[in-house]
Design a protein that fits this description.
The chain is an alpha+beta fold. It has 2 domains: 3-149, no CATH class; 159-351, Alpha-Beta Plaits (2-Layer Sandwich). The chain has helices spanning 3-22, 25-47, 49-52, 62-70, 73-92, 94-97, 106-156, 159-166, 189-195, 198-218, 244-266, 298-309, 319-325, and strands at 173-186, 222-227, 230-235, 272-286, 292-296, 314-318, 330-339, 343-351. Strands 1, 2, 3, 4, 5, 6, 7 and 8 form an 8-stranded mixed β-sheet that branches.
Amino acid sequence: MALVPYVYIIVSYASLLIFYRSKKFEYITFTQLVMLLVMPFFMQWAIGGYEASSGIAIWGILCPIGALMILGTRQSTSWFALFAILAVVSWKLNDQFVGNSLPIPRHIKDTFFLMNIMGTACILYAVMRYFQSQKERTLQELALEQARSEKLLLNILPKSIANRLKDNDMRIADSHEEVTVLFADIVGFTKLTASMPPADLVELLSQLFSRFDQLAERHGLEKIKTIGDGYMVVGGAPMSLEGHASVIAKLAIEMQQEMAEFNEQTGKNLQMRVGISSGAVVAGVIGTSKFAYDIWGDPVNMASRMEQTALPDSIQVSEATYNLIKKDYKLEARGLVQVKGKGEVSTYQLKS
């Protein structure tokens, strides 16, 4: 009986020495797993079977548990199978080992039963508790990363489009019969870029456009993109919106008010042009890398032209939008305006 632990100590030190010289981790892993598996059974056989040894072979379960932690699920299966085979063999040959038993008092056997059961139970619980805590921490970190990725995705794409992409709907192209598009840009932006450091200019635009973002979100509108100092919003896509033209008109007026407040707070004298048009568009996601949600159609082009030909600090709308909001807002006819690709068209100015 005393020989078994001595053999374990000798083999362990020998394997450590070999590992120190060879740096082969798999060797020391294998030898330790073998020792963890066979030594408890050898002890049990030497002491006199299950009862006499107080079931000391239960410590052998640490071998497949260790293999599971170190080698993974697939390779640990064979170690557990070996443990099960040794347990069955010990049970089958238990009567032959009984002859080795010593006259150990019953209370000592019971004490060792308790020690063996509680010892293995405590080690297994500690191991499982450690791995469960690691699992919970990993899941929490994963949830945080997923939320961060979700937030980033929703900053790029509308929620409904993001959900479709997550469902592997990679070809998104939808027709929308009734939408209203708004374009806005800052007057004299090119001159402004020459007079401000780049970092200050970006911070200025970020502060201003963040205010516009809040307004658009409050009205249930979808910001499509910013291009330099240009700001593009649509009402009615990707989700339909009742009274989209009126909502966009209200947004344009509030953007002008926000610009005036921004100038007062920052001491700037920025001016903005806004163009609005309505009609049917196609909306979808383009590209496979750095993809973006965008809209195409005549209202997009017309809204851009309305913005380009608008007077500073004015909101210019096309005739299509005028017909949709003329009952709800005060509009003033500007007359015919030369528009690229359209010739002369009737335009109107929205008054706050």
